[in-house]
Amino acid sequence: VSEQKIHYQLLRIDLTTQQSNLEEIPFELYLELVGGKGIGSKLLLDELEPKVDPLGPGNKMIFVTGPLSGTLFPTSNRYGVLFKSPLTGGYAECYSGGRLAERMIAAGVQVVIIEGAAKSPVYLEITEKSAKFQDATTLWGKDTIQTYEALQIDARKDADMVCIGPAGENLVKIACLQNSKWHSAGRCGPGAVMGSKKLKAIVFSGKEKSPLNQRPEFRALVQKILEKLRAQPDTYGKDGFYRQFGTPIIADWANELGCFTSRYFTQGYSPHADKINAHAMKEQIFKKHTGCWNCPFTCGKFVEVAEGEYKCAVEGPEYETIALIGGVCDIRDIRAVAMLNEYCDRMGIDTISAGSLAGFLIEAKRRNLIPGAETLTIDYDNPLGVLDFFKLLVKKEGLGAEFAQGSKYVAEKYGLEDLVMHVKGLDFAGYDPRSFRGFTLSYGVAPEGPTHLRSVFHGIERNMPNRLEYENKAAPMLSEEDRMAILDSLIVCKFIRGVLDWGTITEIYNTIFETHVDNGTLREIAGKIVTLSRKFNVREGFSRKDDYMPPRTYKEALPKRNGETPALDREKYDMMLSEYYKLRGWSNDGKPE
Ligand code: SF4
Predict the structure, then answer these.
(1) Residues with a CB atom less than 6 Å from ligand 1
(2) What is the pLDDT of residues 374-385, one digit of tens each?
């Protein structure tokens, strides 16, 4: 091992006693679990008491970086946060780009564990491997951008921040974290957990750099990856689709395929998608390209609506926001989607779950299924009505108080299980589960619920001739789930997965850790990491029964432009699920042996 052996540091911060403590993470743990997701999952499993109250002081927030974070490696800008979800009651993980991870490394810490709860609002300043506790009374109540401005983060070139907005303070269970201003760690309610700890923000600053950058072999590896990116100019080049259009370009293929989440999953296609797609965005509201730290193809877009009822300025909307706020609520104006996006980011709510809750309410209201809903203005193609609902949600007023508990809670309260669309209590990402089969399985077994990011298998399956067949899907999906588990442990952006095959991943591991393992070892590590998250859920009471799609998907076909996609076949889904468990080495009830 070279002289620049890395010392991985964990800063443990107890908000109850207002003390912090620095611990070294054994190098062997990195060899065993790579970093990020791997180490975060182990810490979550080891450190949380079983059945702990997600909004009590016993829950912990585990902020992780990966061994690539803050290095020259392209897209090494992401951090992760792991916690027990107040929305699902299970394992939760979120990742976000921007610049925060690089600043965590600069502050000298690879992992930060937040435990306990403060009595009154505080924020943390973390620098030189230690934490200062600061009074946040005057910040409490401010939105996320106001919090940035109050702490003058823009003026401090050496600092970045992650914070919550009013939704997190009010313990809204879909509350997210915002970092680097417009970047969100969105799903499963981390904002509510941070709010329950009375922690408004964490600011990271410092001057430390990853020693990896000094190693010639690592620099050569980075050059090799950059070459691979340059070899795919249509994807990663200056005129490639990420840079030109960003994720909103997905709206076009999703709509054509018939998986675009439209009118609360009653359609897989919208005749109005061209009013909220990448082209509409470019023509009407685009201001400038933006992106995360150390990303050569910056997919972000800053947009602005100068005046009128949709006046806004925000980085976004990303595809998922377009699909879940635009498609699900049938909003036919990209300016309105951007305005709602800005509202969600400022208040600190997940745009995916917020849009899905709004669509759920619209359908329930139209069918007279929720008493009192008729007094609300919310409806399809009514952005201001959606905004009014979001305001109730953030403040937990009226029906907003019930929806702030999540879609599963509302469905159980009003007997709407045949209408609601969720798995494990988490709302779907922007692809209807009936349009895929292997990816549908991925929605089912993802430990936090139906996110698109655990396998990203829809990106492959959409081009497969047997897209709607169940046979031979469990194994290739599992392989991608494994690959993504390693990417989330290194932590890099999923958008460079196109140049990170198993051989390259193994080369990265060997270069970082100065080892000589083969691809098989990496596959084994990935399986171990995925199983850690499953063990956490099993301990919380989850089992096979929680890995199914909602009832509607087995009963209703999905209309698309020309015809319809058939409903899911529960028996065949069962077959895929059993095959998946077997491949993972879990019991037929989905329990790791
Ligand atoms: S591709 Fe986009 S999301 Fe990924 S690192 Fe680059 S700017 Fe960030």
Answers:
(1) 75, 77, 97, 242, 291-292, 295, 297-300, 493, 495
(2) 999 999 999 999
